[in-house]
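Quick look at the format.
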Amino acid sequence: MKHIAIAALLISTAMVNGATAADMSYQENSGSVGANPFEGFYVGLQAGYGQLNGKDSLGSSKILKSGIGGVYSGYDFAVGQMVFGLAAEANLASYSTSSATGLSTSKSNWNGSTTARIGYAIERFLPYLSAGVGFGEYSVKRRSNGETSANTHVGLVAGAGIEGMLSDKLSLRVDYKHFEMGKKTYQFTGFNPFTVEGRQDTLTLGAAYRF
């Protein structure tokens, strides 16, 4: 969690520092690469790190960590230096843990989001903020008989990042997202139901192609 917070702070600092020089740098660049390079459809691959903080109504809490990787795509349109966009992503993960008693295991194998973003183009760089809806799979399995209870948790997601154009078509981005995963009920035969909720933070490096 500490490393993710530091990375998010660095992203925010880059956004603030870049915005102070935006007018001059954008005007100098506009004659050579066009009014704004961040327009149109794009699709990309990403990989990084995730941390999931979960708790249940039985009094247990866990911190799960995992590498993540997946795909993302979206569409941007520009109004001057301002960039507005819609995006979606889907990631594979390998979060896993065991209960304190060892009687059950929990895991999460995928997550994703659908977000809107707003950014400010500074030459070939785009610092941005994003917000939308996040979702993630979570399952609990009893060791004794293999019975599994699974849900898809849904909640709000917010983030920030910076994207840079390597060429007219290729871009790289660093992206941070914070997920608030809503409460869901889990049930096993012969036991009272319980609820699980959590938060997830992800930090990824992505490469995309713009059409």
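Next, a different chain entirely:
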Amino acid sequence: MLSDEPDSTGEEENPESAGKKSNKRLPRALPLPPPPISDGVAPPGEKQESFGCFLPDRLPTLNALYESVGTNFDLSLDVKDPAAFTAILKISASFQATSRLWLCFPHWETAATWREHKQEFHLVDSPTQDLLTGQHERRAVQLSSAGFDAINMPEPSWTAGHVALFHRFGLRCLAWDAQQPRQID
């Protein structure tokens, strides 16, 4: 259920930024039903939690993150399993952190239903480039109408024209995989 890919923000190289952006699917402490496990054994180097979720020991739970560093930062989570949404929102609300929570999901129609929760959090579309090819204006209209706050794409996919287009519809533009000054400036 969890992404084993390293975070693209350089968390491991910079301990001060730990937890500020995560590609993890869900926190370790969520009370979710176990996923199907063929042999019931955790992969090497990982531990299995009571609900069947695998998470390397080096990654904090969402509870542990907020307890250790507080909530005075914006947190962007790439939600990989929509079943985790309610638990993520509940944990963030318990720390009064929902207003600084940015939830990214690749299927905008599914994520749009999360607005029904009426809690203050930022909703971010994180489409794969092939799904968006040639349909940027249509997507901007859809996201704006559905109450999204932003769209998140890889840095090389952004052009000045795309940024202007999404801004015209009141959407913020987020770029991932941008670590070099030439990409950020």
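Confidence is low (pLDDT under 50) at residues 1-52.

See the schema section for token definitions.
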